[in-house]
Amino acid sequence: MAAVRLAVRRLLTDLPAAGPVLVACSGGPDSLALAAATAFVAPRLGRPAGLVTVDHGLQPGSAERADAVAAWARTAGLDPVEVLRVRVDGRPGGPEAAAREARYEALVEVARRHGAAGVLLGHTRDDQAETVLLALARGAGPRGLSGMPERRDLDGVPLLRPLLDVARDDTRSACAALGLDPWSDPHNTDPAYARARVRADALPALVAALGPGVVANLARTARLLAADTAALDALADAALADVRAGDEGLSVDGLAALPAAVRTRVLHAWARELGAAPAALSQRHVAALDALVTGWRGQGPVHLPGGRPVRRHAGRLLG
Ligand SMILES: Nc1ncnc2c1ncn2[C@@H]1O[C@H](COP(=O)(O)OP(=O)(O)OP(=O)(O)O)[C@@H](O)[C@H]1O
Prior knowledge:
Layout: H1 2-13, E1 21-24, H2 29-44, E2 49-55, H3 62-75, E3 81-85, H4 95-113, E4 118-120, H5 125-137, H6 142-145, E5 151-154, E6 157-160, H7 168-177, H8 194-210, H9 214-243, E7 250-251, H10 252-256, H11 260-273, H12 283-294, E8 302-303, E9 309-313, E10 316-318
Parallel strand pairs: 1-2, 1-4, 2-3, 4-6
Antiparallel strand pairs: 5-6, 7-10, 8-9, 9-10
Helix pairs in contact: 1-2, 2-7, 5-8, 5-9, 9-11, 11-12
Bound molecules: adenosine-5'-triphosphate.
């Protein structure tokens, strides 16, 4: 419990914005331990704290579970406490992605309504290690290997992850020590999901082969790469401003003079500006844009996701 409380205390002490924090709680062990720690720590720091639980309506008994989480939260002194019932069907993508999208939409709405300083999520160090391993396996670049950020703004609402350096075993022990009975999400153990297989098989195999430090080390790699990625992103922001050729696209000479790591980030940012959806924009698109600069042999336009063509003409990239 001490580790979880300390992590929450650190986050709340450093939080600049006024207003309540809202714990997003599924009823699972990680977010339940987070909610319990927040209920303890926040009043001592003079910070109002509430809880939000989302009922996706996808599993039998989900409404009762959400109500039980909310009832517990009220007894723990959290206020406001809200159960948000969301509709998941009719959204694109698989059911998991649709549920996540609906959940984040609802969390942002409730945070805005309460003028919240942030929404607290229960991702742990183990979740971070799994994320890094999954990213490595799909050949991700430094951004993917940076894992989940400790803080990110979604539509102006800070999403905060205070437990990224807390072991999952600690959240489980904290729940046990408090006599809480967390809910087990069947998806977490369903081998149909890559993350569940990493959790059940891949990470334990790595720990067995390389030692117990592996989980913390993977999370550390994420932190190191997050810092480097942020620095490169800042350089790329400045470089994009430098290579703009007025309204006439980007200067090829300016782009060619940049280090590749900065240039590909500039091209990625510019493609997003031109309307390419980030999720659809792959390394392949960016490599094709880069080839217009560094591998020029008179090739035709590059078609960004969404169909917009980018061509090279008279020393410029035009979108
Ligand atoms: N139904 C929900 N309602 C509110 N918040 C949720 C819900 N589901 C997930 N979250 C938030 O998102 C975080 C990550 O959820 P996810 O299901 O990916 O992870 P988890 O490791 O199973 O977490 P937990 O043990 O808390 O369920 C949770 O810790 C919680 O903060």
